[in-house]
């Protein structure tokens, strides 16, 4: 069995974002709701490491629609170095 460390603690799952539904658990309702939205823009908000990126990536993959995926992690690092706020 593969072993992964998350914040120095051994976990039984791979903590990286998922791209396939078979690797994603207990979020079927949220996934289906996201796939049925009619808005051209959807924001997914929540605490860190709760599956937001995986939810979006899996939905986009299943829909097969053209898309842009933007992560703001780089902006966070930029603002902490420069003191600039966005």
UniProtKB/TrEMBL annotation:
InterPro entries for this protein: P-loop_NTPase
Protein name: ATPase domain-containing protein
């Amino acid at each position: 069995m593969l072993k992964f460390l998350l914040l120095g603690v051994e976990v039984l799952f791979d903590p990286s974002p998922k791209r396939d539904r078979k690797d994603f658990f207990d979020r079927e309702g949220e996934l289906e709701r996201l796939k049925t939205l009619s808005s051209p823009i959807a924001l997914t908000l929540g605490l860190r490491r709760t599956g937001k990126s995986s939810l979006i990536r899996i939905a986009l993959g299943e829909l097969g629609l053209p898309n842009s995926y933007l992560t703001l992690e780089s902006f966070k690092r930029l603002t902490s170095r420069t003191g600039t706020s966005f």
